[in-house]
């Protein structure tokens, strides 16, 4: 059975407002493209003046990766979430520069890819970042429920499956959505209260821990390899 990679991206005045990735069957294409169009048009980041929904048949193999285990972090405030992350970084000897970037950078379409040791930015186009694409849950009911969580789980599982990625940090750029996560060693730590409601802050940071010679192929995997996330 053929599968299709569906990508949506929208912008207003050149600023990214909304994007999404699905992998679906031909029977699901009309509903999927319509749902993504509706989403772009009603996004809290603004009404787009540019909207692109593309459909590409996937030729060749689709890589299957396991879903991450989910741990809900009980944080009651933004300050508690900061403290939790600082402690997490100290416990696991992660570079605190990644945390500074998480809480300061915003407005990228993709993720910052940084060297886990030096903090150097490895993205070929730092203003765009690395855009993870061509992934979905194998089970489309999982993909369609709880949109933010399901999409983040699919993206995080694809990213985490690459041996050169040590960790991922994420805060939603949706002003109303204050939950984020850190993905590390097969676990998705779900973080409430990453920011105050109404804040525009939102970004992703990938910590790269692999040979310099493999940066380009790692980015190629993140951007182009079709991946289905298998239920645990
Ligand atoms: N690839 C790389 N980076 C991306 C991608 C992508 N496909 N999509 C978004 N980003 C980056 C970009 O810098 C955005 O500004 C930032 O991540 C946030 O994107 O309940 O909604 O789509 O457990 O706003 C996580 C928590 C929600 C879910 C994540 O991200 C939960 C979210 P958003
Ligand atoms: Mg968003």
From TrEMBL:
Protein name in UniProt: 6-carboxyhexanoate--CoA ligase
Record GO biological process: biotin biosynthetic process
Top enzyme class: ligase
Keyword Translocase attached: no
Domain of life: Bacteria
Species annotation: Corynebacterium kalinowskii
Keywords per UniProt: ATP-binding, Biotin biosynthesis, Ligase, Magnesium, Nucleotide-binding
Gene behind the chain: bioW
Family annotation (InterPro entries): BioW (IPR005499)
Hydrolase among keywords: no
Any GO MF annotation of the entry: ATP binding
Pathway: Metabolic intermediate metabolism; pimeloyl-CoA biosynthesis; pimeloyl-CoA from pimelate: step 1/1
Transmembrane segments: none
Pfam families: BioW (PF03744)
């Amino acid at each position: 059975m053929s599968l299709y990679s569906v990508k949506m991206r929208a912008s207003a005045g050149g600023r990214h407002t909304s994007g999404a990735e699905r992998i679906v069957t031909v029977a699901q294409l009309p509903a999927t493209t319509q749902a993504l169009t509706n989403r772009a048009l009603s996004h809290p980041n603004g009404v787009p003046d540019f909207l692109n929904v593309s459909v590409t048949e996937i030729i060749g193999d689709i890589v299957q990766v396991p879903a991450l285990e989910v741990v809900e972090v009980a944080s009651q405030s933004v300050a508690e979430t900061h403290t939790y992350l600082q402690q997490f970084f100290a416990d696991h000897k992660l570079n605190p520069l990644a945390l500074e970037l998480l809480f300061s950078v915003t407005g990228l379409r993709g993720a910052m890819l940084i060297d886990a040791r030096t903090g150097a930015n490895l993205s070929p186009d730092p203003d765009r970042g690395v855009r993870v694409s061509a992934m979905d849950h194998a089970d489309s009911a999982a993909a369609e429920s709880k949109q933010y969580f399901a999409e983040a789980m699919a993206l995080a599982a694809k990213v985490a499956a690459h041996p050169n990625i040590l960790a991922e940090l994420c805060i939603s750029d949706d002003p109303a959505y204050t939950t984020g996560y850190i993905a590390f060693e097969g676990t998705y730590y779900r973080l409430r209260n990453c920011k105050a409601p109404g804040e525009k802050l939102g970004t992703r940071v990938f910590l790269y821990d692999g040979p310099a010679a493999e940066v380009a192929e790692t980015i190629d995997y993140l951007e182009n390899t079709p991946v289905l996330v298998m239920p645990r």
